[in-house]
Every structure is written in structure tokens, then in C-alpha cells.
Design goal:
alpha/beta, 17 strands
């Protein structure tokens, strides 16, 4: 890198010896997490030794039955996902005392209530920042009102307007999206906001970082936010401090803190890049080399992204600012939403960027997918790396296929997680038997999160077909409607990808390996908790 070489060299990954890992913060946190698990498992024994009367009372046959019944009744009356409730009921029935203590700990929201309250406050403060124009509303009312109805639903969860005057460009590979990202970053004059699940040192991040550091030195406001799990896998703890020395404002979302929080699952899985409020990117691509096939990981990496140019970029700007201020007062910088946007008078159709928050009562990502499946008339094509869904989404897939809709799903041919892949394969038989066409991508791993339907609508974003995305993560996506060129690009990409896939027949779905079938059956019981 040519810019400010001395400082950029500070950002090269440090080689960690085994002793530094064991006695460093990573080792300490890992030890504390293991201690937390052990403590929860040993709590009944500790009660028996130090509080024998209480233990005997809780662990007696009658008390066990009463305790189990109370918790089961509590679970039944709650408005949780049925599979989630069934899983907890099974744990509590099999291990009454331990299961009850574990459930009480998880439901205590220790260290979680504050962030939940903060997120809700931010949503309330920013709910009126952006609006769907009345002209757009009238146009949608006069035509197919399905998008307007979906927008009415999303208004309950946050600030997600429908926009015209926005051009959407689809990239069928991360390699192509990366080139476009670099071109747009070079044009930045006012601000660059990045929010990603994974950032890892390498070719991709090195190219981006060189531009960010140079732009920051020119007075451009540069902010980066990444998920706290990177601290364990890809970046050192002091990385934000190092970036600040380059003029880049940097935050980790929810660093892992054992004993302090029960919301380890609530991760920031979003991928957002906003430049000057005029252009934005989202999709499956993180800032690491496998996403652009500079590093081979699980074969060829099939990923996708979209670039938005125009008014709809404001929604991604707002989503970023909301997450940026989760752990501080504000937002006091909503003036970034007022950045002038270049008009796109030739842009066709509508686009609605939206986010999904795991801390409210709405399952936005899942409901948007179900809405598309329920309204489909001709086809629904899906690309997803994982297939671990609840009964509602599975029934939506089945119902669409049973109505005669051409439902096709593309999944990895080379999976990244064996157990998760076994769970996906465990769903094949029922789906295929009822008309859903399943394909596996032979060259490698599909990380794309894409749904396209009826040459009319599509979703490209970060939301997988699994419990983590649908229930536990902060997510985002762009809903694309009546944009013929963009939607045709997505459809063509799916059709071209299908040429590189093997279709799973019913006979193959029935004859899965015995180990795969039993793994799926056993793990499915606890899938909602994974």
C-alpha cells in the first residue's frame, strides 16, 4: 500500500504464539465462557451441598412435577415460535432442575434488557425520519397493492419506506461487486459508512482499507462497525484503536462478555456500505478474501450483492446510524440523511430497503419471504447457504409448490458446516415429495441470500433460511419490485447457476446416509437454540 505506509503496516496481523492466545483476552474469555457453562451444569450439585433443604424441595418428585408443569404452562402461553417452545419443554421434562435453571437464566435477559431498550428507543426516535412519498403510495394503490401492504407491515417495525428514482444493479459474484465497491469508494467526498459481520485482513480488506485511510486524511467521515465475534476469529482486540490512528472511527458490536449477557446469539449479521448517501451496497458479501474467491474455502464461493444508486440509499444510511448509536446517546448526526442525492429519472420500479431486529416481536425477514411465497403465481427461485426453517416457512414453501408454483432452491454442494448441512438434508425428503425442487451447487459453497419471483419481485440481502438469521441476528435486505432489468439479471443468474447444480431426486432424498439422517433427527430437536 502506498498511502501512509508506516501506519498501515501497523495493521498487519500479529502472529500469536500459543502462550499469547492462552493467556491473552481470547483465552481468558474462552475460559470464562467454559466456566459459565460448567457453573450452570454444576448449579444443582452446588445447591445440594450448600442449600440441601432448598435442593430437596426443588428436586423432590412432587416438586419436580410441579416445577415442570409451571414452566410448561408458562411456555405454552408465551407468543414464541412453537418449535422453540417444544425444544425447551423437552429440555425441562428430561432435566427438570437444570433445565428450569437454564431457562430462567436465558429468559432473565441479563445484560440484554439495556440493549433491547436502547434499540427500541432508537427506532422510536427515528421512525419519522423517512417517508414513502404520497405519489408513490397512490401509484401502488392504483396497481398491485401488495408492496404497499408489505410496507404497512414494515412501518410497525421501523422506518422502511418504498422509493422510486433508485437504480439497482445486481452482481452475481462477490468478485464483481468488489470491483464496483472500489470504484465507488474512490468517489467518496463526504462520508463512508461500513457495517459488516466479518472483516478479515487480506487482499479485499487491504484494498478497501487503503482507500478508507486516504479518504479519512482528506477529511471524509469514515466509520466502520463490525461484529464482536471477529475478535475471536479474524481481528485483534485493539484493532479499533489502530484504525482510529488512521482517522477511521471504528466500533465492535457486542463484544463477547461472559457472565454479563445472555444474548450471545444476537449478532450484527448485516452487510452495509454507504458512500455519500448517494450509493449503497448490501448482500451476502463480507470483507474477507473467500467472498471474492481470492482464497479457496469450500470450493468456488458463490455470493451476490446489489448496488443502490439514488434515494433508497437513505434507508441504509439510517440503518447504519441506528446501529452505530446502540451503545451511546443520540443519534445526533441525522444530518447525514440530508446529503444530496443524484436524481435517477430513468430508474424503473420500486425498491424498499429494510432491516430485521431480533429484539422486537416481529419476524420481518421470515414474513417477507412468506409474503412472496404466498403471492407467487408462476415461480419462486431461492439461493441460500442453509436450510433450517420453522414450520411456518416450511409450510409456505410446501403450499406454494402444492399450488403449482415452480419452487426451486439452490444450496451448497460443498457445505461449510457438516451438522448444519445434515439438518438441511433432513428437510429434503418432505420438500421434494411435495414438489419443491432442490439443487446443490457442484463447484462449491453458495452464500447468496436471494429470492426472485414471477419476473416482478426479488429480495437480495443478508437473511439466510435458518433460525439464526430469522430469529437471532440483526439483518437487512433490499426488496426490489417491478424493475425488469434488475429482476431479469437475478433470474438469469439463478438459471445460469442451476446449470452448475445437481438436482436432488426423491429417491436421493430418501436414501440419505444413515449418519446424516440420524444427525438431522437428533439435532433438529435443539435447532431453535443453535
Amino acid at each position: 500500500m502506498t498511502f501512509n505506509g508506516k501506519e498501515l503496516r501497523l495493521l498487519k496481523p500479529e502472529k500469536k504464539s500459543l502462550l499469547r492466545i492462552v493467556f491473552g483476552r481470547t483465552g481468558i474469555i474462552t475460559l470464562l465462557m467454559l466456566a459459565q457453562v460448567v457453573l450452570l451444569m454444576e448449579l444443582p450439585s452446588l445447591l445440594s451441598v450448600h442449600f440441601p433443604l432448598l435442593f430437596n424441595l426443588l428436586n423432590g418428585a412432587a416438586a419436580t412435577v410441579v416445577l415442570s408443569v409451571i414452566i410448561v404452562i408458562w411456555l405454552v402461553r408465551k407468543y414464541d415460535n412453537p418449535m422453540y417452545k417444544i425444544t425447551w419443554m423437552l429440555v425441562i421434562v428430561l432435566l427438570p432442575l437444570f433445565g428450569t435453571l437454564l431457562y430462567a437464566y436465558i429468559r432473565s435477559d441479563l445484560g440484554h434488557r439495556v440493549i433491547k431498550s436502547r434499540v427500541q428507543s432508537l427506532m422510536d426516535m427515528t421512525r419519522e425520519c423517512l417517508h414513502t412519498e404520497e405519489q408513490v403510495r397512490e401509484e401502488l394503490k392504483q396497481g398491485d397493492a401488495s408492496l404497499l401492504q408489505l410496507e404497512n407491515y414494515l412501518e410497525r417495525t421501523g422506518c422502511y419506506p418504498v422509493y422510486k428514482n433508485t437504480k439497482v444493479t445486481y452482481y452475481p459474484l462477490g468478485d464483481q461487486a468488489f470491483t464496483a465497491m472500489l470504484e465507488q469508494l474512490e468517489k467518496a467526498e463526504h462520508f463512508i459508512f461500513l457495517e459488516y459481520f466479518i472483516v478479515e485482513e487480506g487482499h479485499m480488506w487491504g484494498q478497501i482499507l487503503e482507500i478508507l485511510a486516504r479518504k479519512a486524511s482528506e477529511g471524509v467521515e469514515v466509520r466502520l462497525m463490525y461484529d464482536g465475534t471477529c475478535e475471536f476469529s479474524t481481528l485483534p482486540r485493539i484493532y479499533p484503536e489502530k484504525l482510529r490512528k488512521l482517522g477511521i472511527k471504528c466500533k465492535m458490536f457486542a463484544p463477547i462478555m461472559p457472565f454479563v449477557s445472555t444474548h450471545y446469539n444476537y449478532r450484527d449479521h448485516r452487510k452495509i456500505m454507504v458512500i455519500d448517501g448517494r450509493v449503497s451496497f448490501t448482500g451476502g458479501i463480507n470483507l474477507a478474501d473467500e467472498y471474492i474467491n481470492k482464497k479457496v474455502k469450500h470450493g468456488h464461493w458463490k455470493d451476490t450483492a446489489v448496488m443502490l444508486q439514488g434515494e433508497a440509499t437513505r434507508s441504509f444510511t439510517l440503518m447504519f446510524l441506528q446501529m452505530w448509536h446502540v451503545n451511546q446517546d443520540g443519534p445526533h448526526d441525522l444530518h447525514w440523511l440530508e446529503a444530496p442525492v443524484e436524481p435517477m429519472p430513468d430508474a424503473q420500479g420500486y425498491v424498499m430497503p429494510y432491516g430485521d431486529c431480533p429484539l422486537d416481536d416481529y419476524r420481518v425477514g421470515e414474513m417477507v419471504y412468506i409474503d412472496i411465497l404466498s403471492r407467487a403465481k408462476d415461480y419462486v427461485y431461492i439461493m441460500t447457504p442453509y436450510l433450517i426453517v420453522d414450520s411456518e416457512l416450511e409450510n409456505a414453501l410446501l403450499f406454494a409448490a402444492q399450488r403449482g408454483v415452480d419452487v426451486r432452491m439452490i444450496l451448497p454442494g460443498i457445505p461449510d458446516k457438516k451438522i448444519v448441512n445434515a439438518l438441511a438434508k433432513g428437510s429434503y425428503e418432505r420438500l421434494v415429495r411435495n414438489g419443491v425442487k432442490i439443487y446443490e451447487y457442484i463447484p462449491g459453497f453458495v452464500h447468496a441470500k436471494v429470492m426472485v419471483s414471477d419476473n416482478e419481485k426479488a429480495v437480495v440481502g443478508t437473511i439466510n433460511f435458518d433460525y439464526r438469521s430469522l430469529y437471532h441476528h440483526f439483518e437487512c435486505a433490499a426488496y426490489i419490485y417491478q424493475m425488469p432489468e434488475t429482476i431479469e439479471s437475478i433470474r438469469c443468474d439463478v438459471m445460469n447457476t442451476l446449470k452448475k447444480c445437481r438436482r436432488i431426486t426423491w429417491e436421493q432424498a430418501k436414501k440419505q446416509k444413515l449418519t446424516t439422517r440420524w444427525t438431522a433427527k437428533l439435532i433438529r430437536i435443539i435447532a431453535p437454540l443453535l
